[in-house]
Amino acid sequence: MEKPAILLGSEAVAHGVKLCRPQVISAYPITPQTHIIETLSEMVDSGELESQYIKVESEMSAIAAVLGSVSAGSRSFTASSSQGLAMMHEILHWFAGARLPLVLVNANRALGAPWNIWSDQSDSFSQRDTGWLQVYCETSQEALDTIIMAYKASEQLMLPIMVMIDGFILSHTMERLMIPTPKMVDDFLPPYKAPYQLDPENPLTFGAGAHPDLFYELKKAYSETMTEALTLIDQCQAEFAQKFNRHYDLVMRCQEGNNDSDTAVICCGAMTGTARVAIERLNENGTPVDLFKLRLLRPFPKNALVAALKNKKRIIVLNRACSYGVGGTLSQEIRTALYDLPDHPIVNDVMISLGGKEVFPETIIKVVNDREQLSATEPNWL
Amino acid sequence: MTNNNRSTTGKNHFTDDTNWQITNAELMESGHMACPGCGASLSMRHVLKVLGPETIVVMPACCWAIIAGGQPTTALSVPLLHTPFAVAAAAASGVRQALTAQKKEHIQILTWAGDGGTFDIGLQGISGAAERHEDMIYICYDNEAYMNTGIQQSSATPHGAWTTTTPGGKDFKYGKKDILAIIKAHNPGYLASATIAYPDDFYAKIEKAKAARGFRFIHLLAACPSGWKIDSQNALEVTRLAVESGVFPLLEMNDEGAIEKTYKPENPISVKEYLATQGRFKKITAEETEIWQNEIS
């Protein structure tokens, strides 16, 4: 039987990680991620979790240490945020290219200058092209569950997965959630058996130079695996739903009814919770709007998104990350996915928040109510 | 060369002590990509002869990232993990911790990096690994510049040396970083400098490092004929003269934590004599040479 608990988002993450039994954890503090590694440190110290815990001297070393441990065949974990994730950038590319499985939790936070520690998805959106899978979580329960699913998918695909929780909004907020039993997780997630690893019994070289034609072939295969990953993640989520009775999709419809509404709002991460309240109120007041959350950013679930949005006339995208000179990063992704539809819906690119700028239900209600005034071509700043 | 007949004096384990033997087993294969006369390739060959097959090598960007060969070939018969430039020591730490988790403590980790990856871009990660006393042997093969990218100055480049980024010779204000002092401050499990030009001393130190535990660091001087502007057949002799002149002393940290010489040249040569063997010191002035000589004496 699962146990109910009231936990901070960061603690929920630590519990999810503990259930997956990583043999090696590398840790470097950064707000608002620090509680994750603190909680794991306590778990290791008390003997609750048997794991080698490496207190490295930087985020670059944090990701490099698990590059080493996974290469040696051990399931591993690390967490980061913002400047720390940016510092990992070079090794994120290397990790993916090396076809190594890992789950990294990123507590979304703005990047300076100026200094800002609050919620902002620019850090992980900036890592879109590193080859990592990216999952955005709405709740701490979703984060805990996603970590368990992510280890399974990561090790089946031999691809690293980044799981996002919004800094403070999830990481520092208490939530009632269910903690699966170790047995449930052990039944779902077998121990990691590396198909290749650093082993003197079978000496292999990892990461040696590849000439242009071979490099191209390897990257082509990588791209194909990313596309195949969508099917595997779907299966993984279905199996999880069967065993744990909590269901997740690549793109999730958040509202009952209103299938015929012309307008849809889409966002990712914890803002979805606020949007649920806003959309409910709008619907009650006679403005039918559908709400969708995008769980997976990479690989991009294009077919699922198109299926969800194909009959809409207007898509309002709520962005927490900006590609300066273009607009909301999520909007660009949605626009690209919808391009092949014969009748493109209008895509309103709304820069609703950066650096923790508060988003209230009223903020979203106003955006939707003023939708006729929104630009369909340029980013809309509040 | 003027010193072809100079004998290497001092205790020679190869001739004096029959306990010292070199195994015929090779863990580094022929067909590697090193230049003729490369000190780094010869050093690796002999380090692996001592460490044996139960060794995992971790290396960052450096000449050896090329020497080891491109896919699908490899020059090493032990596992090898290539890593980005700054992170060899951190990645090696992860390998070590994974082996601990798997109860394979007997496997040696050899982190093998050049001077750029050690003195410069990798220094922070090395400090972290040393502070944590990560159980590994870290060997820096120092060819005194970024040789793989085509001879650019590093903080291991000696003052006065020509490189492509010090066309007039490295400014005399900036000497070679004292890497042994930096690592010594971390209280390592073993610490030494060596060169394959003195194989008895070299073998003894690798053996000691192998027997010790914790973070062990060896600073190897490794000649680079193209970067030092010497003929490849003289690479070992020039390396030997670096020691005979006192420019690169063979050192070891003793049990009391003091660094002492393991070899004292009986008839030391002058710095001037050493510098004259290499094209890279062509522009050094008499005054600078004297300063250098005084630094050593």
SSE pattern of chain B, N- to C-terminal: HHEHEHEHHEHEHEHHEEHH
Low-pLDDT sequence parts of chain B? 1-15
Sheet bearing the most strands of chain B, described? 6 strands, parallel
As a whole number of angstroms, the C-alpha radius of gyration of chain B is 18 Å
CATH class of the largest domain in chain A, named Alpha Beta
Query: What's the total helix number of chain B?
Result: 12
Read across the widest sheet of chain A, the strand sequence of neighbours is 3-2-4-5-7-6-13
Summarize the largest interface: chains and residue counts: A-B, 41 and 45 residues
How many domain regions of chain A? 2
Domains of chain B, number: 1
Work out the oligomeric state of the chains in this entry.
Answer: heterodimer
Distance between the termini of chain B: 24 Å
CATH fold-level label of the largest domain in chain A: Rossmann fold
Structural class of chain A: alpha/beta
Number of strands of chain B: 8
Give the beta-strand count of chain A.
18
Helix content of chain B: 25-40%
CATH homologous group name of the largest domain in chain A: Thiamin diphosphate (ThDP)-binding fold, Pyr/PP domains
Can you walk through the features of this model?
- The complex is a heterodimer of chains A (382) and B (297).
- With 382 residues, chain A is an alpha/beta fold.
- Chain A has 13 helices and 18 strands.
- In chain A, strands 3-2-4-5-7-6-13 form a 7-stranded mixed sheet, sandwiched between helices.
- The longest helix of chain A has 33 residues, at 212-244.
- The mean pLDDT of chain A is 97.
- Chain A has 2 domains: 3-244, Rossmann fold; 251-381, Rossmann fold.
- With 297 residues, chain B is an alpha/beta fold.
- Chain B has a single domain (13-296), classed as 3-Layer(aba) Sandwich (Rossmann fold).
- Helix content of chain B is 34%, strand content 13%.
- Chain B contains 12 helices and 8 strands.
- In chain B, the strands form 2 sheets. A 6-stranded parallel sheet of chain B has the order 2-1-3-4-6-5, with helices on both faces. Chain B has a two-stranded antiparallel sheet with strand order 7-8.
- In chain B, a hairpin with a 5-residue loop joins β7 (251-253) and β8 (259-261).
- In chain B, α4 (88-101) packs parallel to α6 (123-131).
- The two termini of chain B are 24 Å apart.
- Mean pLDDT of chain B is 93; it is low at 1-15.
- The chains are: A alpha/beta (382), B alpha/beta (297).
- Chains A and B meet through β3, α3, α5 and β9 of A and β1, β2, α4 and α6 of B.
